[in-house]
Structure formats: C-alpha cells, structure tokens
Amino acid sequence: MGKNIKFRPKSSFLPNTEEEREALKARQKAGQKKYYENRASLKAIGVKKEVQKNPFAPDYKDDIIKYLQDQYYLIETHEPVILEAWQKTRIFEPLFKLNEDGLRKFSLAVIGLPKKNSKSTMASMVANYFLFQDE
Q: Is the Cα dihedral 93, 56, 39, 114 positive or negative?
C-alpha cells in the first residue's frame, strides 16, 4: 500500500511524430464533419429536441431505430441521439429484427467496444426501449 505509483503522463498518450499528429487531426476533423452532416440532415427532416410522440405509441413497436431517434436525447446537450450507420446495421437491426413468428432471433447479446464508444448510452437506450415498448 505505501508504494509510490508513478502515473503515465498525459503527453505519453499523444502521437510522437508529426506524421502521426497530422493523421490524428485528420481523423478528428473527419469525425466532426460527419457529426455536423448528420445533425444537418436531422434538422432538414424536422427532428427536434423535444420528444415528438408518446413513448408508448404503437408505431414504435417493431422499429427500435425510429424509437431511439425520436425519443432519446442526450441530457448534457439536449440534442437527439444520432445513431451511426454501424450501430444501425451491426447492432440494432440484427438484434431487434423480428422473424415470421414475431419473435427475436437472439435472446442474449454481448457487445464489446473500446472505451468512449457509447456502450452505456446504447445500454440505456435498449433498456428504455424494453421498458416502454416490449411485452
């Protein structure tokens, strides 16, 4: 318990070479551009900050993506959640699509993502969907 633990300095997490720094800046700029394009497209189709419909509305019953984009927003920014394409195609569509019998194909899913990739946000969105829409 009394050992001196040396922490890794913040500068050690940053890119070492100029080339790596430029690549990092380019990735950040591309991400910001994509974010603002998504926001602009949502505003163009009329998505607003406030909840549009009753969360118990039956038209959300079989469409988790529509439910999340209409009903869910981030508390800190009061902006609607913008789902990335990979979240829609690789997580929500396969896990929540119903078969011919009206049942889901999977009853258990394990999703592994790196830090700061919205794992907790996605889990809370799914919990809200099950709370309001699932039987």
A: negative
